[in-house]
Design a protein that fits this description.
The structure holds two protein chains of two kinds. By secondary structure, chain A is an alpha/beta fold. Chain A contains six helices and 15 strands. An eight-stranded mixed beta sheet of chain B has the order 3-2-8-9-10-11-1-12. Chain B has a four-stranded antiparallel beta sheet with strand order 7-6-14-13, with no helix packed on it. The chains are: A alpha/beta, B alpha+beta. The structure holds flavin-adenine dinucleotide, iron/sulfur cluster (2 copies) and FE2/S2 (inorganic) cluster.
């Protein structure tokens, strides 16, 4: 997509924004001028550049069917992410990508699928859930386990509620800290595993969230007899180039930007237990 | 991947004297190359632009040990009678800082334009050692692979004319024999010189490794080297190989390091390591870079500068909330295991060529060959070995 140096971003116009929570916004991006349309696979990310401020990896959180705009959901945690959440309709952002490995959608066909997300980890798996529900007949049972810190921190809340009303999917949501109006589950997301119905021998699990959350989720799924090679994690590491050349994202021998972010659990099992790797 | 043009059919070795080397430098410059070579500056032999033979470190040598580097006078006028200094060729192939692009605000958006590489059209590197040729090949795999070659590196590397020199003297921290990268150059050069300093003559046995190398040599009007000269040149390399300052036992090193992530030696070395990043800056293969996104004072023009980075900094592994590798222990472990183990998984080669720079330029004299030895010698028995590194 890029001409010139691979570190040169394309320029994309913000077609619209939506506030998801107090600090989290979804940007709807038009394809860059020199690209006909966006193409990506669920699980991949783009490097988004805020003019003069910096560039960070942001997962693709979906695509609007009607106009083909691409969605990125950003939480303001620092300089660059805050600048990205300040962008408004009509402004521009730099884009490089898409990069990285996708979720194993093909493998999931004909199997039960567990999608387990923590916090903003729902963003990179939202395209997965959408695909599962749109092509519902291709998959076995569909289970979404989602944990947020508090009800106010639930991203895509209306969409999650819509998913929850479907009879052909099991959507379990929990919060660490309930508010008075919260009638749902309270507790860590791993406690939901026991409540869900799935056939562990014929399941694919896709995990996305903070590394500790994923570690505990793996343990819970393992104790429910889900095999190691049926679990997939999306890893997060510092990234500068996204093409395996800057060295920042190394996790053992893997470059998370290129060999990940989605990695099969058995491949990273031993490394995950080493602190500060 | 960078390759030199077709190697010439074997031509007889040639013989140059010091004036011949001078003519070679002139011919390179007249051929449009910016000639970079060794020269004495700030009490070290560094690489810089070379005007003529007088700029070369004639009569100088270096004494190196862990944490020590000292220039000393030789009792002859050898031009290449030293090992390697703090610089490596990576500063020309993958420069310490490069502006990649500029962006300019427009009415309601911005435009990005790639910045042309400011390098002179072509470099000629003079005095490249065998380990350094290997370091270039290793960087080729990282930065000039088939997938996304870095255009800055690619252009500089592809056009570079390389005059190699076989090492006539091993440095105190060298271990290229262990890494099988030297001391004799085994390809990847246009011309290779072996310096012979004898009581009654001072000559260079020259062979070409490419057609353009051969043509360049011809311009210098060399004499033909006799069989005796060639034998002497071979003897120089053999002598150097027999006098390595260090050694590293590389048997099973991949599994050895990766199966010992909790070895107490990491704590031991962490207590000494200053995490100053010197080792990665002087290393000819370390490729890590970061980027700075900057704006001018008006805020109308932005640019991206790529610069060398090191896994010894906290920023290298920073994620919002803290660094993944917060301790010195984890950062030294990343460095050593990347160099000697995971590099093999990533690029099919070790990341170390045994040049010894990281040992010499470590302010507290940490020696990777010692660290590996300590881990090997004190491996807790019964620990798992191998198969745990995520190799595919
Ligand atoms: C594959 C991948 C996908 C991601 N997807 C999303 C997403 O969909 N939405 C979202 O809000 N965030 C996502 N992140 C995290 C996001 O990249 C960081 O929040 C962001 O880099 C923080 O930058 P900052 O300058 O605002 O923060 P600061 O804390 O000021 O960080 C300074 C610099 O450190 C690096 N950095 C800090 N935190 C991270 C991090 N978590 N991951 C990678 N680099 C980091 C960046 O280079 C950043 O510029 C993703 C990260 C990765 C690796
Ligand atoms: S790790 Fe040390 S000895 Fe090996 S190539 Fe780098 S600087 Fe040279
Ligand atoms: S050793 Fe460190 S600085 Fe060198 S290439 Fe590896 S990660 Fe980068
Ligand atoms: S982000 Fe640069 S190597 Fe992965």
């Amino acid at each position: 997509m890029n001409i010139g140096h691979f570190m040169t971003p394309d320029v994309s116009r913000v077609a619209g924004t939506r506030r998801e929570t107090r600090d989290t916004w979804t940007l709807r991006l038009e394809p860059p001028r020199n690209a006909a349309a966006w193409s990506y696979r669920p699980g991949q990310f783009n490097m988004l550049y805020a003019f003069g401020i910096g560039e960070v990896p942001i997962s693709i959180s979906g695509q609007v069917a009607g106009d083909g705009t691409l969605l990125h959901t950003v939480r303001a945690v620092g300089r660059v992410s805050a600048a990205l959440t300040r962008l408004r309709k009509g402004e521009s952002v730099g884009v490089r990508g898409p990069f990285g490995t996708p979720w194993p959608m093909d493998l999931a066909v004909g199997r039960d699928v567990i999608v387990a997300a923590g916090g903003l980890g729902l963003a990179p798996v939202r395209p997965v859930v959408r695909t599962l529900l749109e092509q519902r007949g291709k998959f076995g049972r569909v289970v979404l386990l989602f944990g947020a810190r508090s009800p106010a921190e639930i991203v895509f809340r209306r969409e999650v509620e819509r998913w929850g009303r479907r009879r052909d999917a099991e959507v379990l949501v929990t919060v660490d800290h309930a508010s008075p109006d919260w009638a749902g589950h309270v507790g860590v997301v791993t406690t939901l595993v026991k409540k869900a119905a799935f056939d562990p021998g014929n399941t694919v699990a896709m995990l996305c969230g903070p590394e500790v959350m994923m570690r505990f989720m793996v343990a819970a799924l393992r104790s429910s007899a889900v095999p190691d090679d049926a679990m997939f994690l999306s890893m997060e590491r510092n990234m500068k180039c996204a093409i395996g050349q800057c060295g920042h994202c190394q996790f053992g021998a893997d470059f998370v930007c290129r060999d990940g972010p989605v990695l099969r659990y058995d491949r990273v099992r031993d490394r995950l237990s080493v602190r500060e790797l | 991947m960078t390759i030199l043009d077709t190697p010439p059919s074997p031509t007889p070795a040639r013989l140059l004297d010091t004036n011949g080397v001078g003519r070679l430098l002139d011919a390179l410059r007249e051929g449009g190359y910016e000639v970079i070579g060794p020269t004495v500056r700030d009490r070290a032999i560094v690489y810089d632009t070379i005007g003529n033979v007088a700029d070369l470190p004639a009569g100088w040598t270096d004494r190196q040990d862990a944490g020590q580097y000292r220039l000393e006078r030789r009792d002859d006028h050898a031009l290449f009678g030293y090992a390697v200094g703090p610089h490596s060729w990576k500063r020309y192939l993958q420069p310490p800082a490069t502006t990649l692009w500029r962006a300019r605000r427009t009415d309601d958006s911005f435009e990005v334009e790639t910045v042309a590489d400011e390098a002179p059209s072509r470099f000629a590197f003079v005095g490249v050692r065998a380990c350094e040729l290997h370091a270039m090949r290793i960087q080729d795999r990282v930065l000039d692979g088939d997938q996304e070659p870095d255009p800055v590196y690619h252009a500089r590397r592809n056009d570079a004319f390389i005059v190699a020199v076989n090492c006539a003297q091993a440095g105190g921290t060298c271990f290229c024999v262990s890494m099988e990268t030297g001391p004799g150059a085994d390809g990847g050069f246009d011309i290779c010189l072996t310096e012979l300093v004898e009581p009654d003559r001072h000559v260079f046995v020259a062979v070409s490794g490419s057609v353009r190398g051969q043509e360049m040599l011809d311009v210098t009007e060399p004499a033909t080297a006799g069989p005796d000269d060639v034998r002497k040149a071979e003897a120089v390399v053999e002598r150097t190989a027999a006098s390595m300052g260090r050694s590293l036992d590389t048997r099973g090193i991949h599994d050895l390091l990766l199966s010992n992530p909790e070895h107490p030696r990491w704590d031991d070395v962490a207590a000494r390591c200053l995490t100053c990043a010197n080792c990665t800056m002087v290393c000819p293969t370390c490729f890590c870079t970061s980027v700075d996104d900057l704006t001018d004072v008006s805020g109308q023009v932005a640019e991206r500068v790529r610069r060398w980075d090191s896994c010894f900094t906290m920023e290298h592994s920073y994620l919002h909330g803290g660094s993944v590798r917060a301790s010195a222990r984890s950062r030294y472990r990343q460095w050593l295991t990347h160099k000697l183990a995971t590099w093999l998984d990533q690029f099919g080669t070790s990341g170390c060529v045994g040049c010894g720079r990281c040992i010499t330029w470590c302010p507290v004299g940490i020696d990777l060959t010692e660290e590996v030895r300590a881990i090997r010698d004190t491996q807790p028995t019964g620990t798992r070995s191998g198969g745990s590194d995520g190799r595919t």
